[in-house]
Predict the 3D structure of the following.
Amino acid sequence: MSDRAGTGDSPLVLEHEDRPELRHHFADVVQQRNAASLGMWWFLGTEIMFFGGMFCGYLVYRRAYFPDFAAGSRSLNLIAGTLNTAVLICSSLTVALAVRASQLGKRKQLVNLLLATIFFGVCFLAIKGYEWRDEYIHHHVPTFYFDAHDLVRENPNLHLDPQHTKIFFSLYFALTGVHALHMIVGIGIFSVITFMAWRGKFNPEYHTPVEIAGLYWHFVDIVWIYLFPLLYLIDRRPGA
Amino acid sequence: MAEHVDHSIDHSEHIGTSGFYWLIWAILIVATVLTAWISTIDLGVFNTVVALIIATCKASIVVLFFMHVKYTSEKMTKAVLLAAVFWLLLLLVLSLADYSTRYAG
C-alpha cells in the first residue's frame, strides 16, 4: 500500500486486493456476510407486509362470509395440499443442508442438494398446476365462467351465495398465484446459485449467495405453512 | 469490535449437524400430518385456533433453525424480524378490530 500512497487513490480501494469476493467497504468477510444477510431480512420484512395485506383481506372476508369460505375450502384437494406442504418442507431441508455443505466447502454435495431443491420446487408447481386444472374444469376460477352452483347444491343447509364463494376463490387464486410466482423466482435464483456452485465460486469463507437465497426459499416455505391451514383446512369437521 | 480481525478463523458462523436438520424436517412433517388430521376432528371454534398454533410453531422452527436466527451474531436480524411481525400484527389486529365492531353479527 505504501508505494501507492499519496497518488490520490482511496486507500480503501487497495485493501483486500488478494480477496476478490471481499468488497472494499467491508472490514472482513464476517461483516460482509452479516450485512448481506441483514439486507435479505429487511427484504423479507417487506415481503411479510406484502403477503400481510392479502392475509388481512382474507381474514376480513372469511369473517363476513364464513359458510362460503368453508364450502370453498372443502372443495380443495386436501391430499394435494398436504403433499405440497410436505414437498416444500423437504425442499427447505435440502436448502438447509446445502447451506451446510457450502459452509464446509463440499462442492459436489452442494450442487446435488441445490439440484434437489430445484426438483422439489418444480414438483410443488406441478402439483399446484394439477389442482388449478381441476378447479378450472369445475368452473371455480373467478372469471366470467365462474360457477359455484355445484357447491350450493352440495351444501343445502349453508345457504351459500355464489358471489361470496367467488370471493373465496379470488383470494385463493391470488394467494396461491403470488406464492407460485415466488416459487418460480426462487427456482430461477437457485438455478443461478447452482451454476455458481458448479463453477466452484463458493468456499467456507465465501458462500453468502447460497445463504441469502436460502433465507428467501425458507420464507416462501413459511408463507405456504400459513396458506395451507388458512385455505385448505377452514372447516373439514365431519358433518360440517 | 477488535481492531484486527483474523481472516483465516471465523467464529461467527454456526454449522449445524445434518442429523439435526433431519430431526427438524421430521418434526415439520409430523406437524403437517397432525394439522391435516386434527382438522377432521370436531373441536368447535378451536379447530382454527389449533391449526394456527401448529402453523406458528412450524414457522418458528423454520425461522430459528433453518434460517439460523437462533445462532446469528447479527443482533439487528432479530430486531428486523420482530419489527416485521409486530407491524403485521398491527395491520391484522387493528383491521379486524375495526371490521368486527362496525356492524352486528
Q: What stands out?
A: The radius of gyration of chain A is 24 Å. Residues 162-198 of chain A form the longest helix (37 residues). Chain A touches chain B through 59 residues (CB under 8 Å). The mean pLDDT of chain A is 91.
